[in-house]
Every structure is written in structure tokens, then in C-alpha cells.
Design brief:
heterodimer, A: about 220 residues, alpha+beta, NADH Oxidase, five-stranded antiparallel sheet, three-stranded antiparallel sheet, 7 helices, B: about 220 residues, alpha/beta, Methyltransferase, Methionine Synthase (B12-binding Domains), Chain A, domain 1, Rossmann fold, five-stranded parallel sheet, 9 helices, globular
Chain lengths: ~220, ~220
């Protein structure tokens, strides 16, 4: 098994404008915005203006940062004990670890509060809604950029994202409850870019994302 | 296109065609046309209260129905709300100086522990577009704050919760309001909320989406759709 050059836990800033432009392009292709823009006329002009203002807002407030830390993980039965604190039942992960894979926790954040955006946008509800959509896409762009960076460091290594999902889109609770996520956040220690978790399962700042990645050597 | 709004007896100083045009302008999110027509009605000394209730609010209700039917998405609903607000901004100062009353007073917030505001904000916009006076309490709102809103004259309290971890707080709010002797109606909504849950915890009504919340508020107040 090749030794994996492990990075020290570190929090890395990412260029906000690139991320926002990527997010803006993606948002414009989403059905809800694309359909409106396709209608043309004043409606389309308003949508484009909102996207521009939202992009300027996110670009001015966000300080995108991503952190990645290696996790101590050992197989136990049909699951994995992580950092000797929490058990994650996942047979595929068991197989990956048995094959020499390494598990990492990944934390991304835009590092600003929704309240700041609301004030900056003149407390305009519609514009704020568009900003929220754009911020979410910017966060996803940040997480993808962080993954690409790791893949770039380790040519040939395979990377698999493992979502840490507390709730689905209907708000229903999943495997990862607040206590488990809090435990995982603890692994970041000094590399945590200021992300916390409420008892009810909300990240603070809201535009933050926690996940795991499994990396396997080529061959 | 003729719409099912009441014919104003010349009171709005807009022709029938212009009222149709205003209705369509709101539905189409054409804020400039809305502003032009409402300005004309204002300058002509028209009954702006009736223009609001008989043409503009039904237009926003039409937008809400189209959204609930899946014909349009949220951004288009927002554009229509923006156009509507353009007209309301002209009308409100006039009505504030008269004896015109809002449809009712609503206070809305995301319950304690819930930091999400997307759904709540959509409801705020739709309620304003329906002629309600709306107080936005924000997110992570304590039970006592909802009670205080009742003391400030809220006819309806709207509770929003996104997650299974926060929805139990709705039951606590309802019990707190009852214990404090508040008589405001309670309407609830959110991604994990159902009519069944609303019935079980004693809410007065449930809104399945933002336009549905407006209808729920009206039902809670015993008003027609």
C-alpha cells in the first residue's frame, strides 16, 4: 500500500470571485431561473439584475474557506468507528478501508451570516431569496474546488464523497444526528474555520458544509 | 383579457381595459406598468383601497395559484411580488392617512432553534401581496416573542419550522399562547409539517406552501378565499 502523503489539518482560503461566477452560471441554468430568463422582457431583466446583485453581495461578504483533516477509522463489524467516538454503518466504506483507503473529514464555509446579507441587500426579501440560492451554489462550488485541489495533489488517487446528511430536503432526520456531527466537527480542532452546530442541527454560519471523503491509492 | 375582478363604479378612474392591464401587469411582473397605472388611479382620485382589494390582490392570488399548480417557479412569483409592491408603495401612504384597515395583522417567525428563513420570507411576501399587515419576527423566535406579538395586536401568528428537530417547538408555542390567554389564531407551515400534524397539535390552520399559507390565514380568520 502506498503511503498517503497526509496534509496537516489546515484551513485554506479560496478565491471568492471564481466560486461566485461558477455558482452564478449554474443558477442561471436551474429550471426555476432558466424558465424565467427564457420568457424575456422585463421579467428576464429583473432576474438577471437580481443574480448580478446577489453575486455582488456574496462576493463582498463571503470569505470561502475549506479544511480537510484525516480521520482515525477502524472497521468494526459492518461499520466503521471514527475517531473512537462515533460509529458509521456503511458496508462500502468498510470495504474501501479494508482495501487501504483513507478517510477524511471536509469542512467548507462561506463564513458570513444571512443577517449580514439581508442588511446589505436593503432588506429586500426577493433579492435576499436569490442571494440565498446563489450562496448555496457558491458553497457547493467551494466544496468541489477543495476536492479538485486534493485530487491535484494526488494524481491517480480515487476520491469518493460521503455525505454527512442530517436532514433530507423534506427535513426528515437521517443517520447523522447533531451529536454525531458535533463529534465530527471536533476532529478539526484548530483547523475549523469558525463553524459551529446548534443543538437543532443548523450550521453556523448557515452556509457551511461538512462531509467525508474516502481516498484510495491507484491500483 | 377580462378577469374576474369586480367592476369599480368609475371609482378608480381606470377603464375596464386598464384594470385588466393592471391585473396582467402584476401577473407578468411588469412593475413599470403597475406603477404607471396605479399612479394614474391615484392622480385621478380613484378609490385606491378598492383597486387594491378588487384588482391587485386577486392578481397576486392568481400568481399564487399558478405557483401552487406548478405552472411557475419561485423566482417568477418573486418578480410578480416585486411588481405588486411597486403599486403598494404608491397606495400605502394614501391609505395610511385614511380609515382604511389592513385585511388583518399577522406576525410570523421561525420557531426557537430554527435558523431557516426561506419559506418564512416567501410567506411574508405573499401575505403583504394579499393586503395583510405583516410583522416579521425573524428566526429562532422564543415562545415569549410570539406572545408579545399577540399583545401588539397580531390577529394571526404564523409559525415556520424546517426540520424534525424544530417542529416540536410549534406545540410548545401553541401551549404557551393558550396558557397566556392569547386569542390570536395560529397557522403553521414548513417542509416537515402536515395537515395531520397541525390537527394534532391544535393549530388553527396549515399552509402547504407560501400561497397556501395566505389561504390558511384566511381560513383561520373565517374569511373566504
Amino acid at each position: 500500500m502506498d503511503a498517503l502523503p497526509l496534509p496537516a489539518p489546515v484551513c485554506t482560503p479560496y478565491p471568492v470571485r471564481d466560486l461566485v461566477e461558477t455558482a452564478r452560471a449554474r443558477i442561471a441554468r436551474q429550471a426555476q431561473y432558466a424558465a424565467l430568463i427564457a420568457k424575456g422582457g422585463s421579467r428576464a431583466a429583473v432576474a438577471r439584475d437580481w443574480l448580478e446583485q446577489a453575486a455582488a453581495c456574496v462576493a463582498s461578504l463571503a470569505r470561502p474557506q475549506a479544511a480537510r483533516v484525516p480521520l482515525a477509522a477502524r472497521v468494526s463489524g459492518d461499520g466503521v468507528v471514527i475517531e473512537e467516538k462515533l460509529f458509521f454503518g456503511d458496508r462500502r466504506l468498510v470495504a474501501d478501508l479494508a482495501a487501504g483507503g483513507r478517510l477524511f473529514a471536509c469542512l467548507s464555509t462561506l463564513a458570513y451570516d444571512q443577517a449580514q446579507a439581508f442588511d446589505r441587500l436593503g432588506r429586500d426579501y426577493a433579492l435576499f431569496h436569490v442571494q440565498t440560492d446563489l450562496a448555496r451554489e457558491t458553497l457547493f462550488a467551494l466544496a468541489r474546488a477543495a476536492d479538485r485541489y486534493e485530487c491535484g495533489r494526488l494524481p491517480g488517487w480515487r476520491i469518493r464523497r460521503i455525505p454527512v446528511q442530517m436532514h433530507d430536503l423534506r427535513g426528515r432526520a437521517h443517520v447523522w444526528d447533531s451529536a454525531k456531527v458535533q463529534s465530527l466537527l471536533g476532529a478539526f480542532e484548530g483547523a475549523n474555520p469558525g463553524v459551529g452546530l446548534t443543538d437543532t442541527g443548523f450550521f453556523q454560519p448557515l452556509h457551511s458544509l461538512l462531509g467525508m471523503t474516502l481516498m484510495r491509492a491507484p491500483g | 383579457m377580462m378577469h374576474a375582478h369586480a367592476t369599480l363604479m368609475g371609482a378608480a378612474m381606470l377603464t375596464e381595459e386598464e384594470m385588466d392591464e393592471l391585473f396582467d401587469a402584476i401577473c407578468d411582473g411588469d412593475r413599470d406598468t403597475v406603477i404607471a397605472l396605479v399612479t394614474k388611479a391615484r392622480d385621478g382620485g380613484g378609490d385606491l383601497g378598492r383597486l387594491l382589494s378588487d384588482t391587485m390582490i386577486p392578481a397576486m392570488a392568481e400568481v399564487g395559484d399558478r405557483f401552487s399548480a406548478g405552472e411557475i417557479f419561485v423566482p417568477e412569483m418573486l418578480v410578480a411580488a416585486r411588481a405588486m409592491q411597486g403599486g403598494i408603495d404608491i397606495i400605502e401612504p394614501i391609505l395610511a392617512g385614511s380609515d382604511h384597515e389592513p385585511v388583518a395583522r399577522v406576525s410570523i417567525g421561525s420557531v426557537k432553534g430554527d435558523l431557516h428563513d426561506i419559506g418564512k420570507n416567501l410567506v411574508v411576501m405573499m401575505l403583504k401581496g394579499a393586503g395583510f399587515e405583516v410583522e416579521d419576527l425573524g428566526v429562532d423566535v422564543a415562545d415569549e416573542a410570539f406572545a408579545a406579538a399577540c399583545d401588539r395586536g397580531a390577529d394571526v401568528v404564523c409559525l415556520s419550522a424546517l426540520l424534525t428537530t424544530t417542529k416540536p417547538q410549534m406545540f410548545k408555542v401553541i401551549n404557551h399562547l393558550k396558557a397566556e390567554g392569547k386569542t390570536a389564531k395560529v397557522v403553521i407551515g414548513g417542509a416537515v409539517i402536515t395537515q395531520d400534524y397541525a390537527d394534532r397539535i391544535g393549530a388553527d390552520a396549515f399552509g402547504e406552501d407560501a400561497p397556501g399559507a395566505v389561504k390558511a390565514v384566511k381560513r383561520a380568520l373565517g374569511m373566504g378565499n
